[in-house]
Design the sequence.
């Protein structure tokens, strides 16, 4: 590792040492090598191309899929005194022309562009000119999983980026992503012609995230209980499947006094931008969103991500939950789901326009997620296993490790449930099947004369919620499928046959009893803080207030001034001079010069 790279890390970015494989990657790319980097969210991917961009002569081109992501990165670099800019559709013609001239004159070190703009012939000609005038330092392809046609964020333009290698064969390329299983990894290498690139794969583990999956039982109230007891003053993201549910949930939380905002692709662009800006620039806003929100959101102190509906794959779940706790402090990933989610997701897959091959793959990915939900083993272990990495288990950071799931021999119940599906004609949903098993007299049962079936009333030893759990787990485990031609009715799969014949045991997790609402006093005493004791410290509050004041004066998010982790270290170390403040992690020379006196003044007054 060059001395110059370490100097940039310390003086510009304010960090004393590289983490994990960062130093090796920086050295490899800086000396002209191609690289594929897989590193979890919050692992420091950006430094892997930003420092080589500064070290190498010429202009570095960063391919990024979203306007919000570009803006966030450029604002952060400008705070560090680095000449960076972006070109996208949000700029005026005049601003675009100004940035183009700066690039040609060598006045920029880093330029962010979307893949669509990069592929335009006019931009490729600009790159030719820049290469002839000042040189091109490198190409960085961020969010490289977008190249995968089987992925959850597919962008067809990413598959055309081989033109960079063909047109500029001597310029190093680095592709980066936080989310890629082995198949996606192989596709990135193939599509981007990175067969000769060095591969750097960091651990996918996010040990600071606590995973919790619970069965649905009045999901809104469960969500409210979760926020009240664990995150009363925190920023968070809540994911919902539909736009309607996003708006209804945000409105409902707001009516309960929570600072919740909606975000989905159907909202007016100005409203989306306003809500996103508020989420980034205020301390404890909750964003209720579809998957349209999140990529490129670098807010480091998101303390929780909640799912009110199932994502469609483990990759989606990992990426979405990874937006919590980017600063390395404790965070929660909380999800509630039920049989209705299984039915909805499989119906969406089945009714889509994708090819049969694509549908089979997506069903496989959904089944893997369902298996994760129903698993009784360590959640961290299960996630890492999916991405081809080993984990010893016993993480003490998930529901299954903290409160081991109780399992029971559900063989007899499963046979009853499956038999009821068969005897009613494999055309009814779980609600009607449970009514039959419990011996209820409903209009539908009388209409189809299901009170005459041998399975009528044989399930009174279990209650409604217990039977719901049995059917949910049978569907998640592949014993039952959903027949969408029959309006979502459940039907048997081949796996059900040995169970019905008594040849196979079925063990299921016993669902926990619903949590009771706690009093305000209990909520206050049980609230878990990411920074224990800090919220009661006047100095912490004063430091945050100064950060917010400086951020508002510049129109940037507070974390671009200093991360919470940096403020926490300032609070604990109480530096008394600029020299001492400069030793704090995250305080580079540009920020020290710009903000040092302001924060020292806060320390003197408190």
Sequence:
């Amino acid at each position: 590792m060059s001395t110059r790279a370490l100097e940039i890390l310390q003086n510009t970015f304010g960090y004393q040492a590289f983490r994990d494989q960062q130093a090796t990657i920086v050295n490899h790319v800086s000396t002209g090598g191609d690289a594929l980097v897989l590193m979890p969210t919050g692992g420091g991917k950006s430094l892997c191309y930003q420092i080589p961009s500064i070290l190498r002569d010429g202009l570095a081109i960063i391919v990024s899929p979203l306007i919000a992501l570009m803006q966030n990165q450029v604002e952060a670099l400008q705070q560090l005194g680095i000449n960076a800019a972006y070109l996208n559709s949000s700029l005026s013609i005049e601003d675009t022309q100004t940035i183009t001239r700066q690039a040609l004159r060598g006045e920029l070190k880093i330029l962010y562009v979307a893949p669509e703009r990069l592929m335009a012939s006019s931009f490729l000609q600009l790159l030719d000119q820049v290469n002839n005038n000042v040189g091109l330092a490198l190409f960085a392809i961020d969010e490289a999983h977008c190249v995968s046609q089987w992925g959850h964020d597919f962008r067809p333009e990413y598959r055309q980026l081989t033109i960079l290698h063909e047109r500029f064969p001597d310029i190093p390329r680095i592709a980066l992503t936080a989310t890629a299983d082995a198949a996606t990894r192989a596709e990135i290498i193939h599509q981007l012609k990175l067969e000769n690139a060095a591969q750097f794969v960091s651990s996918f583990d996010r040990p600071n995230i606590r995973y919790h999956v619970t069965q649905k039982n009045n999901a809104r109230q469960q969500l409210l209980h979760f926020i009240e007891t664990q995150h009363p003053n925190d920023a968070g993201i809540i994911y919902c499947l539909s736009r309607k549910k996003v708006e209804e949930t945000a409105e409902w939380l707001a009516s309960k006094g929570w600072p919740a905002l909606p975000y989905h692709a159907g909202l007016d662009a100005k409203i989306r931008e306003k809500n996103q800006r508020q989420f980034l620039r205020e301390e404890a806003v909750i964003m209720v969103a579809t998957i349209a929100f999140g990529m490129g959101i670098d807010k480091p102190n998101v303390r929780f991500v909640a799912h009110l509906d199932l994502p469609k794959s483990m990759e989606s779940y990992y990426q979405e939950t990874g937006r919590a706790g980017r600063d390395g402090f404790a965070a929660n990933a909380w999800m509630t789901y039920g049989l209705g989610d299984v039915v909805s997701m499989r119906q969406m897959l089945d009714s889509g326009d994708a090819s049969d091959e694509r549908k089979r793959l997506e069903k496989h990915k959904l089944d893997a997620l369902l298996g994760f939900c129903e698993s009784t083993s360590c959640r961290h272990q299960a996630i890492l296993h999916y991405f081809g990495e080993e984990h010893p288990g016993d993480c003490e950071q998930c529901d299954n490790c903290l409160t081991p799931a109780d399992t029971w021999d559900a063989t007899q119940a499963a046979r009853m449930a499956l038999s009821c599906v068969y005897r009613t004609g494999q055309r009814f949903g779980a609600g009607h099947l449970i009514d039959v098993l419990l011996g209820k007299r409903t209009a539908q049962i009388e209409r189809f004369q299901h009170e005459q079936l041998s399975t009528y009333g044989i399930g009174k030893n279990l209650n409604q919620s217990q039977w719901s759990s049995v059917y949910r787990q049978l569907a998640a485990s592949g014993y039952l499928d959903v027949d969408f031609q029959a309006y979502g009715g459940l039907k048997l799969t081949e796996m059900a046959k040995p169970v019905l014949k008594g040849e196979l045991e079925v063990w299921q997790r016993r669902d926990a009893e619903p949590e009771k609402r706690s009093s305000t006093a209990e909520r206050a005493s049980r609230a878990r803080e990411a920074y224990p004791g800090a919220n009661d410290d006047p100095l912490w509050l004063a430091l945050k207030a100064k950060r917010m004041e400086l951020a508002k004066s510049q129109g940037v998010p507070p974390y671009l001034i200093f991360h919470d982790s940096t403020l926490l270290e300032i609070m604990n170390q109480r530096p008394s001079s600029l020299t001492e403040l400069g030793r704090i992690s995250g305080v580079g020379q540009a920020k020290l010069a710009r903000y040092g006196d302001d924060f020292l003044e806060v320390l003197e007054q408190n």
Notes: The CA atoms of residues 137 and 585 lie 28 Å apart.
